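Objective 1b: paired records.
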Amino acid sequence: MKIGVISDIHANLEALEAVLSSLETDKVDRIVCLGDIVGYGANPKECCEIIMSVCDVCVIGNHDAAIIGRMDYSYYYDAAHMVLDWTKTQLTDRCKEYLLSLPYFHEYEGVLLCHGSPIDAQNFEYIFSIEQAKTIIPYFEQLKPLTLIGHSHLFKTFAYIENEVNDVLAQKFGLRKNYKYIISAGSVGQPRDYDPRAGYGIYNTEMRTFEIKRVEYNIEKAASKITSSGLPNAFAKRLFMGL
């Protein structure tokens, strides 16, 4: 089975549509979402409705949790706080009920899905550096063979074996026997690796391979909708830089 892996859409409709079109070309069998459907972008309702219709499984992200009162976001910086407040006014009751129903983690086809660290998932801890990855070593026995996460907006892969963890830098790679993996699956709607293209992944359950994919989308349109909605211009500008 080929599973399309998407994460951190952040209300970017243009990026989401481009990724879904690419996934159709890839002929994936299922699509899973690793959270943060909303936040930053101008189309939270539309993105939420699409995720509801196309994703076999979705877990909750920190922005999703903030919107429906499952997380305190009073400490967020002003611009992010403003977008979340605005997003609440845009979502339908059906979308809010959907976000409220999302789990913090979900096991799917032997793969653990969650937004941040799989250790105490509702705290949404980041794992994008080797130092952060090393904090998971004591939990090696508890790890699933593969854990897919989002949150950092970066593509990062960490391979664990007993008391050791290493970076995997390949764009497409096989999962080795006796190793366990945590893969951060980038971002559809707001990449932060200086590549502005929308990102997603494909996991092949039979071949046990993971592939990082990128696709162009209409950044100008997505950015202009952010500014025309009265949202902070910084969130529009960063789309062009992949930052």
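Objective 1b, second protein:
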Amino acid sequence: MRILLVEDNEKLIALLSDSLRQAGFTVDESVCAEDAYAALDVASYDLVILDLGLPDEDGMDVLKTMRFNRNSVPVLILTARDMLDQKIKGLNAGADDYMTKPFESEELVARVRALMRRPAQSHDIYLRLGRVIYDTVARQAEAGGELVRLSNRETSLLEIMMRASGKIVTKENLEMQLYGYDEEGSANSVEVLVHRLRKKLDQAKADVLIHTLRGIGYMMTDKEHGQAH
């Protein structure tokens, strides 16, 4: 899951980015509205975390511009503005949640996960395919009741593929979701990651298949039926 974090406080953005990455999210950072607009133009995000006190434009205006442009990505507002009327203003402008500073990073991670589980985003807590049950909160996968040990990035790949089970996910899409701007990602690195995940799922007798569609991408299906339940 890929997040755009828009915050101009260097210490806070470093702290939040670290917490989110440890929780398994891919994070891109923007320190101003201009950078945020540029990022939104070239990448697809599962969530935007938006500070209102940006140096070049009020974050509320950034939110309004996103919604005017029909960008429906969930937005979690961060701000020191704790007055009720400000919260109402932000929610009415199209925000999905609102956190006032100061706050604990653990709460932010929990709020992010809750937003990503909303029905409109088709994000359930438990994903099931074949013998695999994936817990999106604990970020753990089991096959037949046995834990499947995966790296952070392998776990993210599994979640993406299970959410899109029965559908094609392009290599470009996977690269975009799994690697931030400051990380090395390529079609080849995606291939290696898919190979590792496929091997671990086979070893766990997970009864799922990751099909390779050459030149296009991948699709995960139930091994027995050849498609998602």
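The longest strand covers residues 208-213. The chain has a mean pLDDT of 88.
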